[in-house]
């Protein structure tokens, strides 16, 4: 069975903490790699052997240096990592930003919850939708 890895890129440390903690509660076997912005995410993921793991990328939309959308554009044009599912988790509900994210290749767009129970629901959905099966 391949290792399961989730990259969590968000400039808000509390949001990273809540999301990472919820994922660990739902799926303690998952390795979580945190990044403070899209630039850090891209550097970290370039080092990963993507063939030996089931990987999921979680992106915040609004981050300094490299936004979630900019990072997604780089990911979707990189042959080595373009196949990795990516989910945008954002406080924004701007329809134009959502459309741009889907047009760029996001697999899902989720509005950030306002309580920990909401983060647990997201973690459960991510496990079911993206990590409960082996990808080639």
Automatic annotation (TrEMBL):
PROSITE patterns: RESPONSE_REGULATORY. InterPro entries: CheY-like_superfamily, Sig_transdc_resp-reg_receiver, TCS_response_regulator. It holds the Pfam family Response_reg. Keywords: Phosphoprotein. PANTHER family: RESPONSE REGULATOR RCP1 (PTHR44520:SF2), RESPONSE REGULATOR RCP1-RELATED (PTHR44520). GO terms for biological process: phosphorelay signal transduction system. The modification 4-aspartylphosphate is found at residue 60. SMART domains: REC. Residues 5-127 form the Response regulatory domain. This is CheY chemotaxis protein or a CheY-like REC (Receiver) domain.
């Amino acid at each position: 069975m391949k290792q399961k890895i989730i990259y969590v890129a968000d400039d808000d440390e509390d949001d990273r903490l809540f999301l990472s903690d919820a994922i660990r509660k739902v799926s303690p076997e998952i390795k979580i790699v945190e990044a403070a912005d899209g630039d850090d995410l891209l550097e970290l993921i370039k080092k990963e052997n993507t063939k030996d793991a089931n990987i999921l990328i979680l992106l915040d939309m609004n981050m300094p240096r490299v936004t979630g959308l900019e990072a997604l554009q780089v990911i979707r044009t990189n042959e080595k990592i373009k196949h990795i599912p990516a989910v945008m988790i954002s406080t924004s509900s701007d329809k134009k930003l959502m459309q741009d994210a889907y047009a760029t290749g996001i697999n899902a767009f989720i509005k950030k919850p306002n309580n920990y129970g909401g983060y647990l629901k997201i973690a459960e959905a991510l496990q079911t939708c993206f990590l409960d099966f082996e990808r080639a």
